[in-house]
Amino acid sequence: MRFVFMTFAMFGARCSSLGTTACSSFAPRRPVALAVLVLAALLLLIAPTRAQRDIDELRTLAEAGDASAQFNLGRLHVTGSGVAQDDAAGARWYRMAAEQGHPGAQHSLGLRYDVGLGVSENDVEAVDWYRRAAEQGHWEAQFRLGRMLANATGTEQDEPAAVRWFRLAADQGHAEAQFFLGQMYYNGRGVPRDLREAARWVRLAAAQGNTTAQVTLASMYETGSGLEVNLGLAARWYRLAAVQGHPAAQVTLGYLYDAGQGVAEDDTEAVEWIRRAVVQGDAEAQFALANMYFAGRGVPQDTTEAIRLVTLAAEQGYIRAQFNLALSYDRGTGVPRDAAAAAKWLTRAAEQGDQAAQQNLGVMYANGDGVARDFVAAYVWLTLAASQADGPARTAALAGRDIVEQRLTSAELNAAEELIRQWSLRRSP
């Protein structure tokens, strides 16, 4: 450093003999830059040494039994800050602090057991450590304990107790706890059902920027659940979640612009919001944008792009996309007519319980259209379709089933009934 300052002084002396103009344009630049570089290099050397010294001091305190130091050292190991990332070491230090009653460590150790990081996943242990932290007022532990009690995870289900823990965290301003408490009131779990109280708690969470709460509050305004219908406010809350990147909010806001509900009708704006969700890979958005391309609303009509998007959604398991793609192949809309492809996509939708897909698939099996003719399969799908239909759809499904039944032997009919029974068992909650 002495050499640098001497050099700077020498340049400074030469500068003064050249006059102020030359001094300002020449002399200070190189020496100052050199001094800054040397100083920066020294700081880079000093900083790691100081950080290591801090970690060594922290470790000394932790080994001496200081609970706060044990907790902080555990966090460093979990995050890999200044030490090797090591979940097992993190959990060990958390445990030492937790056993001394440190609430942050108790919560963190509970979380380790909850997700199985550094320790074997163990929901019972997670509940135990969450409870210890929660009893000391740790709001995140209170929320997580409430959720485990509500879902019977690691403990017997106790919805009133879940509500108590949610409320304790919610009263401290925990946004997720506020939202979950609102959900408990909405569904009448652990408390009498109270939609207005549900809306109050959901609103508190939404005001803190919780996107799930914002979408829920928007839906409550849209449908009049616990609140008076107000499409303008619904659109406002959907927008707040949408600008934060919530795909369902983006799609729904697109629907509102498409229909002119709560906002001025604007197909271009609708496409813009739906496309944002498409970029995130959202299946409903892919399906919605496909429909915009099919109809030429907000975008030039483009059946090729529509088919591409609806296929993406169908491949993600989106039932409406699977059914519509099947119809496209059946009718040759945007694709060459392909009965086998139509049957394939109807099967995927039918297996997810879609009534219209089941009915159409039953007809295809009865006629041998796109699939080998199979009266047992036709009977099964038509029966399942009829079981969840009403009105003309039920009448048509039953009529088709009765026709197919006449083609079955007694053994085939028994086999079909057994397949229906097995289906019902798989679908029961």
Describe this structure in words.
By secondary structure, the chain is mainly α. Helix 12 packs antiparallel against helix 13 (231-242), helix 14 (247-259) runs antiparallel to helix 15 and helix 21 (375-387) crosses helix 23 (410-427). Helices cover 75% and strands 0% of the residues. Among the domains are: 1-64; 374-429. It contains 23 helices and no strands.
Features of the shown structure:
disordered N terminus, mainly alpha, single chain, 429 residues, 0% strand
Give the SSE layout:
Elements (H helix, E strand, L loop, with lengths): L1 H17 L1 H6 L3 H35 L3 H13 L7 H12 L4 H13 L7 H12 L4 H13 L7 H13 L3 H13 L7 H13 L3 H13 L7 H12 L4 H13 L7 H13 L3 H13 L7 H13 L3 H13 L7 H13 L3 H13 L7 H13 L3 H15 L4 H18 L2
Helix pairs in contact: 1-3, 3-4, 4-5, 5-6, 6-7, 7-8, 8-9, 9-10, 10-11, 11-12, 12-13, 13-14, 14-15, 15-16, 16-17, 17-18, 18-19, 19-20, 20-21, 20-22, 21-22, 21-23
Average pLDDT rating: 90
* Class computed from helices, strands and strand pairing: mainly alpha
Helix content: over 70%
Oligomer: single chain
- Distance between termini? 75 Å
Shape, per Cα inertia axes: globular
Taking all Cα atoms into account, the compactness measure Rg is: 33 Å
Question: Could you tell me the number of beta strands?
Answer: 0
Number of helices: 23
Beta content comes to under 5%
